[in-house]
Amino acid sequence: MFFLRMIARSFTRQLRRRMLIALTVCLSATVSVAMLGVVFDVGDKLNAELSTYGSNITVQPKADAVVSDLYNTEAAASSGDQADPTAFLKESDAVKIKTIFWAFNITNFAPQLNVHADVNGVSAPIVGTWFNKTLKLPSGESTVVGVEGMRSWWQLDGSWPKDDSDQGVIGKTLADQLGVKTGDTVTLTKKDADGQTRQQKVRLTGVYDSGDDENGSLYMASSTAQVLANLPDSVDKIEVKALTTPENDLARKAAKNPAALSQDEWETWYCTAYPSSIAYQIEEVIPGAVAKQVRQVAALQGNVLQKTQAVMILMTALSLVAAAVAVANLMAASISERSNELALLKAIGATDGAVSRLMLAETAAISLVGAIAGALLGSGVAQIVGQVVFGSGITMRPMVFVLVFVLLAFTVLVAASSSIRSILSVKPAEVLHGR
């Protein structure tokens, strides 16, 4: 009881220095909780933010995937020189993507039939796809998928077409070339594999500006494109947007050869939302398909995440170092001012250990008050960061508070220990006699 009373009395003495210690710990705790809270939650936030800029997984027929890897036909496709596809997937199989283990991480997808046709006499790429299609899943649930949600950065003058209709949207470059605008009707002419010429009129509901080579294309409903090309229930690519976990060594090893994984590695990889594991599961449910992650997107997610986390961890470390220096200086000044009191305690029989424990207990008590206040403030700061940067709140995990309190306890202990050593040099006779 006497020990507790002495600690309680210490709060009424040297109030200014006590408040400065509490404020220092509070600020350090605020920064640490806010930064570590964001670090633990930033992966999902960054993936969700980056996923608004297109798909990160593409699904192709095996034959096309092999040819693409051998001859880099994707580069030709981007320049508009690619011939019409010769291998296809079933459009009706696309819904199976939402039946895999990581179905809830699949936020959107859209099948495509990419062909060429004459548009008002000008040869142009035609993309048959889904725009805003409602699918009934085997589980009884429904979901809305399509290009409308996957091309959020497009600037569209007009409105999106309806699925299963004769409507379409045209790229700005192609529209300027043809001299057409929203509301006009264009005539598509294509010769199919049997040598028959087919025509299809498409009413333009909008003109889009994608900012890239897609401005030279015309997008229309997949059902209409399949009739034009005489390819029922056929698509040559499926774009998939998924929330994924950034790759690590295990994911890269699995991407090269999943069969090389041990049983434990396999279970960890398969049950983690890596791009490669999601792609593998898509291949399991769609016959004859090869799913590949878009490496540029995956690399961007990993790099941005690592750099963001590194900056926040560095800020946390710097705040703890600053707190340690400040607490050590404040305690050294406090011990110097209380030298008479400490000398008296030693003169009446208190050991160096007892006096040191008293000083540590006083510092721990005031630091705990500052840490609790800082933890509350840090949670609020984390929510502000989440709303400003990501437009959503940060999920504060209990591990963040445990880690911060452990780090602060270690920091305060190190700072206090360096200052308390001066107690050992206090000689009661000299101090009390003013020498």
TrEMBL record:
- Keyword rRNA-binding part of the UniProt annotation: no
The chain positions of domain MacB-like periplasmic core read 20-242
Quote the Pfam families the UniProt record gives.
Answer: FtsX, MacB_PCD
So where does this one cross the membrane? 310-332, 365-386, 398-417
Which keywords does this chain's UniProt record carry? Cell membrane, Membrane, Transmembrane, Transmembrane helix
Q: What is its main location?
A: membrane
In this chain the ABC3 transporter permease C-terminal domain maps to 314-425
State its location(s).
Cell membrane
How the protein sits in the membrane?
Answer: Multi-pass membrane protein
Top-level division of the source organism's lineage: Bacteria
In the UniProt record, does the keyword Transmembrane occur? yes
Family, according to the entry, reads as follows: Belongs to the ABC-4 integral membrane protein family.
Protein's name according to its UniProt entry = ABC transporter permease
Organism in which the protein naturally occurs: Bifidobacterium santillanense
Q: What is the lineage of its organism?
A: Bacteria, Bacillati, Actinomycetota, Actinomycetes, Bifidobacteriales
